[in-house]
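Input sequence (399 aa), recorded before submission:
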Amino acid sequence: PRIAEESDMSSKLEVLWSPNRGEHFATYTSEVKLYCYTRLQEEQREDLGTADLQLSAGSEFYGRFIAGSNDVHCMPQYQCVAWQTNAARQHFFAVGQSSGKVVLTNLGLDDPSLSNHYLAPKSGRPCTCLAWNSNENNLVAVGLEKARNDSSLIVWDITRASSEHVAEKTNRFWFGPDIVTAGEESAKQFEVGHTEQTSSLAWFPNQPCCLLAGMGSRFLRIFDIREQSVTTQPQPREVANHKAIFGICVDPSSPHRVATYADGGTVYMWDTRQFVKPVYSFSRNGSIARLSWLNTRPGCLSVLTSEPPYLHLVDVPSYTQPTNTQADVGELYEHLTQHMSDRCPYIISKSAPHARLTGVSWHRQLDNLALVVNSEGVVRDLRASDKMPLVIAHAPCNF
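Predicted structure, token format:
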């Protein structure tokens, strides 16, 4: 087996744990590869193939290659991939391309009906972000760079995706306008955002029809997709004027709590029940690269930065809904920043001291287990301890 790395475009390698099966994960650069996270005894390793991954030297855990999709090509600096939460289609991905097109691909044997279908905007420009609706799993929200006569935020119904000429269109880079059929237009469930870019977005798990988007240069907007108008642009339910429009993620344990970041090293926390300004913020070394909440640890926010120690696990204290005075917000801010803890800095590998940490994905069921990627394209399995720094995982994992 190979040490888990990609030789081409390694700095753009990303990793995702499956939202459907605990033992599966995927990597992607210009193609998506599916693996099974497996613990192997020494005598079992003789059966490993060249496509399998050894997750760091000395580890008993391996990624057994299951399937790959090389029929969907993307320029890596513009690609984004989202894994659908769906028990019926457990290995179903949406792949955003440099053209703005979203290609649907299924790496499993379950329900191949929508594989190699696509969704294309009227104007070709890069796709910036993707998010599946976990409650209505036929809906996928797509963020795009700005275009004068087209929306930058589109919610598609994948059951109406097109399959015409998909082989021709997915095997080339496409920047120009496409021929948008009536069927493709009918697949749009919601669209908004002419003449501005959508940089990040997320659905609210407790409000299946609502999503939050970072748009333009400094707007966070909450939309209800049921309020689409035929004649006018939809109006947001809530708007915040702030520069922290990147990395939107909703806390699954407290869906009214949202984390975002701006250019630089500051993370901002929001309460959607009082969506005027951030309720508090905190900073870490370097620029923020990624935010994610841990499903297994309520109130624990993973913060990936561009400078050592790269990875932080920040325990965000729970708080009571503030009253209607600005003074209460200030008092809450001061109280919370005094009680936050940064528990688990990443240990820099002695074998690759100059390799930056560039990606992280936390397991959705197993406490403190993550897969991380460094700038050399190496994938490692890591386990964070409550009282010790982040270390390579060697403990048995049962799924």
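Checked by second reader. The mean pLDDT is 80.
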